[in-house]
Amino acid sequence: MEELLKWFEDHREQLIANIPYYILALIGLILLIWLIWYFKSKRRRRHFRFHWHHFTYAIGLRKIMSRHYVGRVHVHENFDPLVDFLPHKHIIFNKETLEEPNLVRKQVLFKLYKIADSLPEGVNLKIYKTFRSRTKMNEAFEAVIKEVMEKNPEIGRHEAMKLAKYKTDDPKGSMGGHETGGAVDVALCDDNGNDHNYGTKFHEYNDFTFTYSSHITKEQKQNRKKLVKLMKRQGFVNFPGEWWHFSYGDRMWAAYKGKRDGGIYGSAETEMGGHYGFTIPVNRTVHETHHHYQM
After folding, report:
1. Residue 147 located in a structural domain
2. Domain containing 190 — which CATH number?
3. Distances in Å between the alpha carbon of 179 and those of 12, 134, 146, 203, 241?
4. Does some domain include residue 145?
């Protein structure tokens, strides 16, 4: 004991000087133990990976969020009904690309009305695509499968289905926003329906398709920024891979907001006995109780 006390007296100044380092080492040890405990949970590891992925997107290390992580978003369906549109002087419908009936979730509709209300004379919101039914998706998927098998007669249907998924969505496994009624494809246009100059047409895929492409002119960049700004004011999120695609409430919207548990719109349909049916209310008379939206 005496030897220990003597050693302490001889080294007291050095020990006192090193106290901050001892504290840091203790904090580091506690943090290490906590991290080991925290990441022991598979659920927490998934949660961390999602937010790390979103962080790398937010600081510009990646252009878009991976489809894998978008699919990790949890949806808590709020059963906001699907509704159709009424005419608006600043809304133009592109009938060639729209599916009838032309439906969106009620909150999405009101947000689009507010955007249209804010537009000056000579500027309009063109609606290219809204709700997409699983029946139409299935028809498109089967058409692609047929095309693949015709071009590759040596492969079977199973392989053809795998290849078809690269060209269009499989209705049984799709998690796209259009199936929820929360996604819309839009552009700003003049009174004759001519789109502003965005550098590409709707659904024209090339190096210029990304919203913030560096390969477009100053005018085209400004037009895209104006569209994004208008939509963001009403809570929409733009998919960076397509300047025309905006979402509210679906998985993509929640993912780009960094909310892994934030989805409020799931698929509006489900398969029932070989047929697809709505699991979300479809209310086509909802407008009658909302006269405060000026048409």
Report:
1. no
2. 3.30.1380
3. 71, 7, 23, 17, 18
4. no
Q: How far is residue 201's CA from residue 228's CA, in Å, rounded to a whole number?
A: 16
245 and 227 Cβ atoms separated by less than 8 Å: no
Let me know whether 82 and 190 are in one domain. Answer: yes
For 170, phi then psi, to 5°, come to -80, 115
What range defines the domain where residue 183 resides?
A: 70-132+178-289
* Structural domains of the chain, count: 2
Instruction: Name the nearest CA neighbour of 279 among 85, 79, 109.
Output: 79
Q: How many residues does the chain have?
A: 295
Give the span between the Cα atoms of 146 and 136, in whole angstroms: 15
135-163 in b/e form (b: 16+ CB < 10 A) is eebbebbeebbeebbeeeeeeeeeebbeb
| Under 8 Å between Cβ of 232 and 238 | yes
- pTM of the full predicted structure? 0.82
Tens digit of each residue's pLDDT (9 = 90 or more) over 253-290:
999 999 999 999 999 988 777 778 889 999 865 544 44
Instruction: Confirm whether 65 is domain-assigned.
Output: no
Residues 117 and 235 in one domain: yes
Residue 262 resides in a domain = yes
Task: Flag whether pLDDT at 67 surpasses 50.
Answer: yes
Q: What is the pLDDT of residues 77-117, one digit of tens each?
A: 999 999 999 899 999 999 999 998 899 999 999 999 999 99
